[in-house]
Structure formats: C-alpha cells, structure tokens
Amino acid sequence: MYEKIEETVIRIIADTLAMDPSDITSETKLVTDLKVDSVDYVEICVSLEDEFNVSFDTEKLMESMTDATTVANIVDYLVSAGAGED
C-alpha cells in the first residue's frame, strides 16, 4: 500500500510541476530540490485530496511546508490520514 501511495504522490507532483516522475524519489525535498512554492504546494495538496479523498487543514498545510519536506513526509501523512484504506 505504501509504495502505491508513493507512486501516486510522485505522479501528482510530476504532473503539477511538468517534470519526469523518474526524477523524483521518496527523499526528494519539495522546496529545496524541486523549487516548489506555496502555489505549487497548494495545487499538489488539492490534487492529493481529490485522489485520496482526504482533507488537509489549510493552516497546518502551510505550516508544514519547510525546506526539509520530502515526498516521504507527504506519503506518511496520507497513510496516517487513512489514504488507501478502501
């Protein structure tokens, strides 16, 4: 389940940023490595909400965006929020 969620997160990030998914790994840092800004971050999160039927708290969402935020951090959050539990 974790790997499937990770693949989907990587696909959504790649689609949002118009880049090749093979250039993104679980350890890729969104801000530092991919230069994600707040608008990109919100777009990615909206797509993740739609894909996984979860909700993000907007305030916490913006607080969570740091230079150290990785793809794995997002996957961990989605798993803890019940994503993939059909």
Blueprint (SSEs and pairs):
Blueprint: H1 2-17, H2 38-52, H3 58-64, H4 71-80
Helix pairs in contact: 1-2, 1-4
Can you tell me about this structure?
With 86 residues, the protein is mainly α. It has one domain (2-80): ACP-like (Non-ribosomal Peptide Synthetase Peptidyl Carrier Protein, Chain A). 56% of the residues lie in helices and 0% in strands. It is built from 4 helices and no strands. The model has no long low-confidence stretch (mean pLDDT 90).
Mean of all residue-level pLDDT scores: 90
Proportion of β residues? under 5%
| Helical stretch tally | 4
Supply the helix-strand structural class.
mainly alpha
Q: Say what the CATH topology is.
A: Non-ribosomal Peptide Synthetase Peptidyl Carrier Protein, Chain A
Biggest β-sheet strands, sense, barrel: none
Count structural domains: 1
CATH top level assignment: Mainly Alpha
Helix percentage: 55-70%
Number of strands: 0
CATH superfamily: ACP-like
Low-confidence stretches: none
Sum up the overall morphology in one term. globular
Radius of gyration (Å)? 12 Å
Reported CATH architecture: Orthogonal Bundle
Q: What's the order of the H and E elements?
A: HHHH
Distance between the termini: 11 Å
